[in-house]
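Example 3.2
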Amino acid sequence: MSPPTGETETNAVRAESTSSPREEFRPTRWFRWHLVAALALFFASAFAAYALVGTIPIEQLEALLGDVQAELPNDGPLPELAFVPLLVNNLRALLLIGLGAVTGGALSVFGLVVNGALVGAVVSFAVRQTSWAIVLAALLPHGVLELPAFFMAASIGLRVPHRVLRWLLGWDETPLSRVEFVELAVISVLLAAMIAVAAWIEVNVTLDVVEWVAGDGALDPVNA
């Protein structure tokens, strides 16, 4: 004897609920081996640039910097910082790295390599002109937010094409779930906020920290 229709429907709903559990909100899924790969690319580029610039005599670097300075419409290689232009520039860089999500990860890799090389080159030159204490004082206050934001964006830019590839190969039912899209939206807002706070710190706090560590005029050798 077959069970009543109502009981059958209830059992079917219960079975469907058991076989397809609701996916949890887990933003940390975006920052696993993709984040490790992003860190490896950035720091490999930074160390390579640091070593390369370190082999160039300081006199040649100063001459090159002088030539670049002569082409700039300001009085030094370290222009006066303003919050809005800096924020826009950093958000643009963040977006470029995150666009690896729609370029097969290419823009993420490019952004990591270029920014890593730039940081390595600047640190290599600055530390020979001043000291590690001053360089760290200039980088850490805003860097503790800015760099993680870039690394997180790069991790997203690498994970999305990875998920799409798995979907194309038939390993996953969808490239991204609804929950993952929500996670991306929340993470994007968080990254923009991190970049905004980092820009404010760089404009309003960094110089004070450098002068607290090394005294007034600590950046004069670099800005001369």
